[in-house]
Amino acid sequence: MSDYRIKSHPILIDDTQASIPFYWQDKQYFAKPNEMISSALMAQGINIFRHHVKDHSPQGIFCANGQCSQCMVIVDGLPVKACMTAVKPDMRILPADGLPGLPAVFECVDKENPTQRYFEYEVLIIGAGPAGLSAAIELGKLGTKVLLIDDKNQLGGKLVLQTHRFFGSSEAVYAGTRGIDIAKKLEKQLKELTSVEIWTNSTAIGVYEEKVIGIYRHQKENVIVKSQALMVATGARERSLAFPGNTLPGVYGAGAFQTLVNRDLVKPCENLFIIGGGNVGLIAGYHAIQAGIHVAGLVEAAAHCGGYKVHKDKLARSGVPIYTSHTVIEARGKEQVESVVIAKVDQHFKPIPGTEQIYDCDTLLIAVGLEPVNEFLQTAKEVGMDVYSAGDAQEIAEASAAIFSGKIVGSEIAKKLGKNVPTIPESWLETEQILKSKPGKIVEEIYNQKMDGVFPVFHCLQEIPCNPCATVCPKDLIFIDETDIRHLPIFDDANADECIACGRCVAVCPGLAISLVDFRKRTDSALVSLPVEQNTPFIAVGEQIEVTDTDGLALGIFKIEKIRAVAGFKDGTRLLSVEVPLDLAKRAAGFRIIPPSAPKPFDEEFLGQENFDDNAYICRCERITAGEIRKLIKAGVKDINQIKAVTHASMGACGGKTCLNLIKRLFAEEGVAINEVTDPPVRPTFVEVPVKDFIENCPSEKEKFQ
User: Fold this and answer.
1) Which of 13, 656, 693, 700 is most buried, most CB within 10 Å of its CB?
2) pTM for this structure?
3) What is the Cα–Cα distance from 79 to 19, expressed in whole angstroms?
């Protein structure tokens, strides 16, 4: 029996045994407690969950967040999303190949013991990610009666997927701490507050005209919640991308990949290719390397990666080829992804004939941006509720910004409710804007002239909000402007002899962008210490590694002299030391860890000809292609409701969450202004709920026939 679980990870430790028996197509497997069906199947190497009823195409997971319906399976006769349904003992699971028949009988709610269906709170917060947790803490400190709900079985939102250290302010948002640990800190604070009630595995399903929220509580009962104020902290969903082969099993959103790898410790692939050079794609690529997955390459359509340079540098130093001004042309494979075709693009982002290359890969990770999950916010405004938003539901930004955003909005709600809250300080608003700011300018790497003693070298060359290195130096030798932490760090050269080579600045850096150079005890060389967060056989004392500069350029192959832990850092970061020539010491910034992939030449007819991408699927649920929709747009249709009526696009189980923005992009490509396009209405319910769970009471067997 195959086992695709991650057994060794530099950051994550999970000794939980897969002990829950379940059946997939009548064959027994075992899942971990509270493990989702999708992860349990992927851990066995099963990545095809069904075949689409329309064309029998293989379907796997895409979002792993309940936002699409590609992972639909049949559980005990009912269709469910595999990524949102936990395995239960002896559960029988079948591919959702066609629709199941209606059950002969249905389970009734006991009339004599009805479930409570109506609840009231001062504040309802939808979403227990960084913004929701932070807001609940602020409100809970004031004794506010709060209900915090989340559709997952643990608190933290996307924090529980983030194994890297966070940027931002150490004082304000725990910068220098890993996302997984920030989630635990916030949860601990929250659970000490008695006025906050928490419902996990509970999904908000709709906003109603009576100014109440429908909630599918604990995934088994529909209830109604009325609150004086509503806060929407539902985060963001990932954008999809249209290209031929875009629905093959093995085409994931970045969040799905991180869910499998970092939350569930499942290794979904061996050879990954990434589309998108924002922070999400760059970070996911590094997470893949930590999990022992080869990253074949990354493409970004823009001329520069939009994410932090330090994230890009981590991949480049590791050996990942990064192609800017490139895009994906096609994903190839029969039952799953087998290769990807990429090409260079011109200034209009059109593929350039003759620049095509083919990379072998078994997974294609799509990280082309995020969109706010704001249907709750918009509908609540329409019905006149007192509603607020924070985090990505308010504005797409880093998770550190979401933490601070939640704190501010929580205070605003408390003040509106009449709590004794001081006016929000101007400094809070300034900090929020700094944390939300985009990456700044990139400066040239310039080294100081010092060639003796020991001191850190900073390889972070871009203005981003980050100050952990300035907070951990025991000798206070590192400075960052306190009024604006986007400024680059400065080392106190005048007092450099006070540096004790503790390595704390190297270990705490979220960008792994600091090295420690030691000129002591050597004449023709220096000992350079670099951060290491990988578990591979060749990272060991005495082994040879290829050292690289900031941008990934090879400097030479050198022996690992020692590997040591850093006092106060027991969460995975160690220091690896190599002895290098004097002229290379300050340039050494990292080391190559994965072998480069050689692209295959493309000797076929150019695939970027007009309308080739008509074969791409826009609506995953209903299998509607770009060509079908483009034909209607060219015929003059400007109302998405008409497109729905003709093609059924956006009428699938996901409710248009993945396809509506792709449809709008097609309008733009055809020269139709977005303000001329009529949007379809958004109606409750926003997610699927079994009809039986709407029934408050049902008649007894005797009453049914009277």
Assistant:
1) 656
2) 0.93
3) 24
